[in-house]
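Q: I'm building a small set of examples for a reading group on sequence design. Run inverse folding on the following structure and report the sequence directly after it, with nothing in between.
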């Protein structure tokens, strides 16, 4: 696996006056009520706020819908190659965000024609996934998972269901063996690398993810099948094994963690919001509305790091210097009061930025496949367990301590036991 590494040839620029008032992207406010923090940042700084990442590393948080759209639509000004960063000399080798920003030969960091080539391979490989077959597979996976706890009358839905279903669906799409320690460890290491808890080692976890995907690619070179990995290997673009490993990591990570939290956040909404109470049991229209509302108000990917300024420029009234890091505030942008002046988010439309925007947005048809997984998971659970209720009061639910992902630590539920 290619090491995640900084680019040491950049010098750290003089201290930026704007960052004297920077806010650290950490703390309890982010964990439970990030919307309040975004509101405060907007009031003090406007659409682009100076912030501090882990270790007091300066960056810019882009909060405005128009500003996020502008950044993601202008790759010539705000690019993805992190080797441009002007802070690399200040980054230690065990920095917890290194899996996000350390340059790798991945589609995530490519630009221009190379990015279009790599993203095209992913899009064509994903386009080979039959959405009706995926929905059928997800229903089977859902039935199997539900059967494992249906007889007890209680379940912890994040652990037992929301995380398990997209994980199994994603690895099945990519041709990994169903179940087994290898698959379980892959998913755990992906969680650690993307959303590390205290005591986790995200850099080591990411290295283990690469090793496991390397083994999958070698296996599919020898024994190709009707799966995403094999289609990437046989694509005319002729990607190397290393390129495919890196891009598969991106595909699996995007399919698993965000989709799991999309499922969990939607179930929370359906089980706590009285607007859905009358129609929740198997109500397809209600489920669809809830899924879309979550993407506006509780999007699984809250913030995304990042873009790097190609030259000195201005954004949202701020002077951005060449090499500065910009964090895309997707959740803040989705609730921008400039977009919703009446403070009512119109969840009936799909113009949210939850899948980002521009050339580096989540490649088609990945959002459609994620929707199939999430919709099938939620609908099947409610159909099988129609009297599902929370086992705790809504205000007892807690969010995972992450500024990047929005997901519950647990979702305990009760229902009438179902005897097979």
């Amino acid at each position: 696996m290619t090491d995640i590494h900084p680019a040491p040839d950049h010098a750290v620029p003089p201290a930026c006056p704007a960052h004297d008032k920077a806010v650290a992207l950490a703390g309890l406010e982010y964990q439970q009520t990030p919307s309040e923090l975004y509101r405060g940042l907007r009031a003090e700084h406007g659409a682009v706020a100076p912030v501090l990442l882990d270790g007091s590393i300066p960056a810019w948080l882009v909060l405005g819908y128009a500003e996020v759209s502008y950044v993601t639509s202008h790759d010539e000004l705000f690019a993805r190659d992190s080797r441009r960063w002007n802070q690399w000399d200040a980054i230690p080798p065990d920095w917890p965000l290194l899996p996000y920003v350390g340059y790798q030969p991945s589609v995530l960091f490519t630009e221009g024609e190379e990015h279009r080539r790599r993203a095209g391979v992913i899009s064509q490989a994903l386009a080979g996934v039959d959405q009706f077959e995926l929905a059928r597979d997800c229903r089977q996976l859902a039935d199997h998972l539900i059967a494992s706890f249906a007889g007890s009358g209680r379940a912890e839905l994040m652990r037992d269901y929301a995380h398990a279903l997209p994980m199994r669906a994603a690895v099945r799409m990519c041709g990994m063996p169903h179940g087994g320690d290898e698959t379980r460890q892959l998913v755990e290491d992906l969680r650690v690398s993307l959303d590390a808890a205290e005591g986790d080692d995200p850099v080591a976890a990411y290295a283990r993810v690469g090793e496991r995907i390397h083994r999958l690619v070698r296996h599919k070179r020898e024994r190709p099948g009707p799966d995403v990995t094999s289609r990437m290997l046989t694509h005319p673009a002729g990607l190397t094994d290393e390129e495919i490993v890196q891009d598969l990591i991106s595909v699996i990570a995007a399919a698993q963690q965000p989709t799991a939290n999309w499922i969990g956040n939607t179930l929370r909404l359906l089980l706590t919001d009285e607007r859905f109470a009358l129609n929740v049991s198997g109500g397809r229209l209600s489920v669809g509305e809830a899924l879309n509302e979550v993407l506006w108000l509780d999007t699984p990917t809250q913030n995304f790091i990042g873009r790097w300024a190609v030259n000195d420029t201005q954004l949202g009234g701020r002077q951005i210097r060449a090499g500065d890091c910009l964090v895309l505030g997707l959740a803040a942008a989705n609730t921008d009061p400039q977009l919703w002046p009446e403070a009512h988010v119109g969840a009936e439309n799909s113009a949210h930025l939850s899948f980002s925007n521009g050339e580096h947005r989540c490649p088609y048809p990945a959002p459609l496949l994620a929707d199939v997984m999430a919709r099938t998971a939620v609908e099947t659970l409610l159909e099988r367990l129609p009297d599902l209720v929370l086992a705790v009061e809504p205000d007892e639910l807690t969010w995972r301590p992450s500024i990047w992902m929005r997901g519950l630590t647990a979702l305990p539920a009760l229902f009438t036991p179902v005897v097979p």
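Residues 17-414 form a domain with the Cytochrome p450 fold (CATH 1.10.630.10).
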